[in-house]
User: Which sequence fits this backbone?
């Protein structure tokens, strides 16, 4: 599971690189890039949740205890929802006229 976390972290970086390219270099929304970014974010968050819960990341005990306490209060869910809302807001701010006009 640690290897899966490492590989999926690389995948998350690639997904956000695609999102960045779509937003700022291509200058057009790419539905594929948006879908990959959102789905990769959700899978990464879920994988990280499971790996923290099951102690698969070889974290120091103090850090792991704090993270597990955050998992119990669903702080990870709140962070992911806020993060996805920020991404949606970025799309609306940049392309709002084209989306709604």
Assistant:
């Amino acid at each position: 599971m640690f290897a899966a976390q490492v590989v999926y972290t690389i995948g998350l970086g690639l997904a956000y690189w695609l999102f960045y390219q779509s937003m700022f270099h291509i200058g057009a929304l790419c539905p594929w890039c948006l879908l990959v970014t959102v789905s990769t974010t959700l899978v990464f968050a879920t994988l990280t949740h499971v790996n923290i819960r099951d102690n698969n990341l070889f974290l120091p005990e103090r850090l792991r205890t704090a993270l597990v306490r955050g998992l119990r209060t669903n702080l990870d869910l709140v962070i992911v929802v806020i993060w996805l809302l920020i991404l949606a807001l970025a799309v609306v701010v940049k392309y709002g006229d084209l989306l709604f006009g």
